[in-house]
Amino acid sequence: ILMVDEKGKNMKCLTFFLMLPETVKNRSKKSSKKGNSSSSSSSSKLPPVCYEIITLKTKKKKKMAADIFPRKKPANTNTTSVQQYHQQNLNNNNTIPAPNWQGLYPTIRERNAVMFNNDLMADVHFVVGPPGGTQRLPGHKYVLAVGSSVFHAMFYGELAEDKDEIRIPDVEPAAFLAMLKYIYCDEIDLAADTVLATLYAAKKYIVPHLARACVNFLETSLSAKNACVLLSQSCLFEEPDLTQRCWEVIDAQAELALKSEGFCDIDFQTLESILRRETLNAKEIVVFEAALNWAEVECQRQELTATIDNKRKVLGKALYLIRIPTMALDDFANGAAQSGILTLNETNDIFLWYTAAKKPELQFVSKPRKGLVPQRCHRFQSCAYRSNQWRYRGRCDSIQFAVDKRVFIAGFGLYGSSCGSAEYSAKIELKRQGVILGQNLSKYFSDGSSNTFPVWFEYPVQIEPDTFYTASVILDGNELSYFGQEGMTEVQCGKVTVQFQCSSDSTNGTGVQGGQIPELIFYA
Questions:
Q1: What is the pLDDT of residues 40-58, one digit of tens each?
Q2: Which of 117, 126, 213, 300 is the most exposed place for a label (fewest CB within 10 A)?
Q3: Is residue 94 domain-resident?
Q4: Number of domains in the chain
Q5: Is residue 92 part of a domain?
Q6: How much is the pLDDT for 59?
């Protein structure tokens, strides 16, 4: 038996002899008759022993064609790489492959990819896109049927129609090409401006892995600017995970989401669901102004003049989902009351709601939203003060942190004066790899206790998991303050784990073991 390693090199040569049972029996009978003979003579006169050669097989990992035949780079200009074919095929579906192109690619995947958007051997064509913006794309029924059950039913099912050209007006050409590229090339090529259209195509033709990739792409690119639009689309596509992620962003960064241009593009049903939201973390005057902006754009969509009456008409009963009686009195008097969207009776009743002991009945929801409850991650086990610490002279206190789940940083908890009541000016900042994500300049008053005092960003900042961010503060105040001791490198706060490490930006002594910025305030 010749034993070789996986690379084909000779390792060892072994010989195995297996004596067949019948041969052993005959041999022993004849040897007993000649017991006085020498062993050598007996052996010579015995019938020949039969040997069976057995091949030993070792279990080997199956190899693909690409493993067995390593891909070689073309030696001359007559050969073309798959990547070049892809680019050519995206731009021109009449590409003629080089002679004997099949021999250039060792795997079926690579040979299949050459046929992507290629007229060669095409047995069907698609006219994709709305009227005036169509594109004619070639296809190969077998490849399409292997990649999609819808295409299989279309070409080989019981109700299959033998058409050479199929019109698809509800799918954008770029999205259809992205789907074809996945089916032919096993490659996912997504772009921010076409991913929603690609998701629609993947859902329509039941290509689940491409649809999942589209959802993952949308989740990673989700922000307050596009959360409302994606919420509307996620409900349409029945993607509950994406819907939940959209709500997380809208709740935590509600004011940014409501002020975004994308909010005006949502449908009426999504508008109602947002206005109904109990955990919306926004002032009610911001909700009111966002609804009026949506109404103005909706009038344009319905080809109506954007008058007060028409705005109220398109809002319909959704107007009463705005919790106008919960606004601050100044916000109502200077905003909603003078907007013209309310009737005179509604305005008078709401003013009485604010001031009268006997409050009138209102059609508007009068119970304040619950909003979100901020969580606090405290990183020190104790605090202290000394006669010469902690002093502030315009220097920076900084710490780096990372989380294992997506959160929204709303602000920091800071120590105050250790010498009685005092006021501090604080410039807080949040950065990722040197890029400022949020900052704010504000003042806070400390009462002389060792408690922490919150300082807030204007809007909560979205923090992605498994990435270190830098939290910094520059304090200005004459009084010494408390400072933290016995710092922890890892803190479990609810379902969120926070890790801390020292920051090179810190010039006032703050680090993991001690200093300022004892708390991170966040929504999760």
A1: 444 444 444 444 434 344 4
A2: 300
A3: no
A4: 3
A5: no
A6: 40
Q: How far apart are CA 116 and CA 122, in angstroms?
A: 10
Nearest Cα to Cα of residue 463 among 318, 314, 315, 249: 249
Strand order in the sheet with 490-493: 435-446, 422-432, 469-476, 396-403, 496-502, 490-493
pLDDT digits 0-9 by tens, 244-297: 999 999 999 999 999 999 999 999 999 999 999 999 999 999 999 999 999 999
Q: Measuring CA to CA, how many Å separate 493 from each of 2, 404, 407?
A: 63, 11, 12
Burial class of residue 454, CB neighbours in 10 A (0-12, 13-18, 19+): middle
Write the DSSP symbol of residue 397: E
Beta bridge partners, 442, equal 426
Q: What average pLDDT does range 71-97 have in this prediction? A: 47
Same domain (yes/no): 140, 255: no
Contacts of 397 (CB under 8 A, 6+ apart): 472, 473, 474, 475, 506, 508, 509, 510, 515, 516, 517
Q: Is residue 93 part of a domain?
A: no
- CB 288 within 8 Å of CB 336: yes
Q: At 342, which CATH number?
A: 1.25.40
Give the lowest-confidence range in 3-7, 77-81, 390-394, 409-413. Answer: 77-81
Instruction: Provide the domain limits for residue 117.
Output: 99-221
Q: What is the CATH number of the domain that holds 462?
A: 2.60.120.820
Does residue 138 sit in helix, strand or coil?
strand
Fill in the amino acid letter for 119: D
Q: How far apart are CA 302 and CA 314, in angstroms?
A: 9
What is the chain's length? 524
Q: Are 389 and 508 in contact (CB under 8 A)?
A: no
Q: Given 324, 355, 386, which residue is the final one in a domain?
A: 355
